[in-house]
Each structure stands twice: as C-alpha cells, then as structure tokens.
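Example A, followed by Example B.
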Amino acid sequence: MKKRSYFGTDGIRGQANQYPMTAEVALRVGLAAGKLFRSADDRRHLVVIGKDTRLSGYMIEPALVAGFTSVGMDVRLFGPLPTPAVAMMTRSMRADLGVMISASHNNFADNGIKLFGPDGYKLSDDMEARIEAFMDEGLQEGLATPKQLGRVARMDEAQARYVEIVKATLPRAMSFAGLRVVIDCAHGAAYKVAPTALYELGAEVKEVGVSPNGFNINEESGSTHPAAIVAAVKEYRADIGIALDGDADRVLICDERGQIVDGDQIMALIASAWAAQGRLQGDGVVATVMSNLGLERFLAGKGLVLERTAVGDRYVMARMREAGFNLGGEASGHIIMSDYSTTGDGLIAALQVLAELVRSGKRMSSLARQFEPVPQRLENVRFAHGKPMEHAQVKAAIAEAESRLNGAGRVLVRASGTEPLIRIMAEGDDEKLVRQLVSDIAGAVRDAAQ
C-alpha cells in the first residue's frame, strides 16, 4: 500500500486553515467518503457529524456538509459530543458513516477529522487509502442531481441519548450517592454530558473545564494537564477526580490524596474486578508496547495475559476483535471496553472505576496503585533529515541496551508516525541503568542524525 497523503495514525490532523486541515480538504473528504459509502440502492443515505469545541469546527463542519450533501447523503449534526458518542450514534442510528471533528488532546489551533464505519469502528487503513484515492480523482464525478441533494438537520437530542447510553453501562441499582466527584472536561466535547451523567447517577458533582470559548480546549486542564484535577480534588476535598481530554476518548483518575492514576493502573483495576466477576473475556488485556512492564507482571500474577500492539487505540481495538478480548487500552488513558463501546470512552471507563469504588467500600487511594510500576524512561530525539533508525551506530546501541538488561526489562525505539522524532523508551528494575541506556541510545541517534 502506498504512503497515505492525508490520513495519519488517527484520521486527518493538522493546524487549522493550513494543509491538510483546510476547508478544501474537508470538502474533498465529504465528497470522497460520501461516494464510497453510498450504496447503489435508492434509499436515503445518512452521515452523522459531531465535533468538539474548537473555533475551527465552524469552518470544517460546513465544508464536510457541503461535500456529503453534494453526493446525495443526508446529514445529522450533533454539535459538541465526545468521539465515542459519535461512534455509538453511527451504529445506533444505522448511519452509513460517522464523522468526528476533533484534534483530541491537542491545543485549539489544531483540528482533525475521524471517520467511523456503519459498525461504529474506526475505518481500516485500507478504507482510508480508498478515500484518499477518491479525494485525488475528478470530484465532478458522481454528483447528485438537484432533486437528489442531501438534507441537513441538527439533532438536539444527541447529548441526552448518549447520557442514557452511558448510564445503562452500570447495573440499574448502582448509585454514586455520597460520593463527591470532580470532573474536568478540558473545556471540550464532554462539557455538558459528563457532569450530567454523574449527577443523574447520584454523585455530588464539582465541575472544572466546562466553559469552552473556542480557544481554551485542553488549556491547562484535562487529562494532559493533571495538575488542574489534582488542585480541584484538594480544593473540594473530593473522593475522586476524573480528567477527560478534549474529545473525551481518554481519561485519567485522581484519588482523594491527589495521586494520579494512569491508564495502565485503570486497566489493572478493571481487569482485576472483571476477572473476579467472571466478566473478563480473553483471559487478559490488550495494550500497546508503551504500557508498563509492571502491568504485565501484575496480570501474570493473576493468571492473565497482556497482549501488546503497536501504539494507537485502533490497533488495540483490532486485536481485541480478532482475539476476543473485551478490555484494552493505553497508558495515556484510552480505555476500550468492547461490551459498551467501539473505541476509547473516558466517561464509561470512569464509571467503571466509580462502580468499583462503590462495590469495594474503599477509598480511591487504596485502589489507585494496583501494581508498582517498573522504572521507565522516555526521551524524544528530533532529527532534520536521514533515517537514524537504519544507522549501524543506533542499531548497535539498541543491541547493547538489550544485552545489559538481560531479560529484566524492555527497550523500545521507534520513529514517530506524525513528527520527525525518534521515540526512545527503556524500562527495567534498575532505574539508574535504565536512565543510562536511554541516554546512550539518544546520543547514538543524535550522532546518526548529524
């Protein structure tokens, strides 16, 4: 398959109003995807579109709408809604395609376009490549006649429908009454639905990051800036803090002492609870190569496996579907529970943590550290040209690091899929050695990149 021009590891993403995140490209996406997902029968075809709170959404959304309607697809606009909600609604409304306009945890200047198939899952690499091929072909082909143009309507009840779906993931008798919960929505897509769901489930809710203005999404708030949730938990003396990112597909938890609980610890907690309840499928968890070795050891101690994939929640989901797992995710807080969702859902993951808090009767601090993380060191090295990974000096440094760890840790060196960076990670029981190994490999990469 040839290198893709528009799509990256998670849809199309870039700085707003600069290629490829322009109105023209969005129009081409609508035209191309609309043609590809429009079948030959005479029925009306439907695409649903959600977005986060970035100012540039007002530019990208109408461009997409113009593309879809011009090839005869009807459009339903959700307005601000989490990415996983768009995936759910695509399937529940029997839409032909779902679109989310968001750059997730990036700042307001960026934006992105994510596409979901009629089954609610992110499109495959092959399907994205087919859309790209259509985007570069003659766009005047296959346009609808004036009578066949698509119709557009706003769907005001989308948020309420998602709240009900989220609440239904818990047992009917489950109540969070008596819990004081801080929710940080990063001024993003979940700023209405997340506090509403928690309130309706009985919690005393303290809201943070719920005043979007088009510019402040993820700004010093949300899962990428955990200091905000730590401060809020301490200020309100809360039992637990929940920090979502801009499109609410990832989550971090903060316990009542201000300790951050990352995605690996969340997966460990849910996996342990589900295994005890006989709910964990696949006898384990799917995570990426970046998840801590401590998680792998924790699961092994319970007779469970950790299967690893390439970085990216789409690859986690693909392995879950292939091998029959119902829990997976990333250390960054993408938690996928396929019993409920087709992609990472920060709010649903948070509800599972809250449910275990209620069931156990313990404080969150007692549940926060399911395992002791193995010392891990990460470093990114930027390069201007060449292919440092193919340099003999870099290969030798990696081999030397693996030899010195001698099976008591891991080394992972990979090129970024979105930036000219080499990402270096090492972990092992000897923290001093781990730091030295990363430093040695980084030095080799810098020398090779000169």
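Example B, a separate protein, is given below in the same form.
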Amino acid sequence: MTDWELIFNMLGEKATTDIAKTRDAQGFDENKKAAQRGGEIAHNARNELEQETGKSIVSNINFLDLTEKKKLEDKKKIK
C-alpha cells in the first residue's frame, strides 16, 4: 500500500466516522449510508488528484509483500 492509498483510506474512514456521529447514525442501515458517503468523499478526492497529476493512485503493491521483502533486506544487512 502506498502513502496515497493509505491517506485516502484514512480519509474515507474519518469521513465515515464524522458523518455517522453528525447524523447520530443508529443501526446497520444508517451506518451503511454513512460509510457509503464517506467512501464517496474519498473516491472523489482520489479522482481529483489523479486528474490533476495524471497519475494513478492505485497500485498493486501489497503491504504484506513489502514487509517480507523488508525482512529479507534486513537479514542480508546483518550478515
């Protein structure tokens, strides 16, 4: 996961939390609507940045793969 992917993920989560609190969302259906709106906000922000920079934010980098690669690199440095 890249920095930008993490940032937009966090944006969606924080937007969802704030929307749910503001609306005093109760139950699954109300929280689902808040989550959909939070995701829409993050999606729109991502699209705007991609249009402005001409670069895709989404990558095929997997955090777990990076962690394993980092472990291997660290082991090589120790030897």
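On Example B: The CA atoms of residues 8 and 42 lie 6 Å apart.
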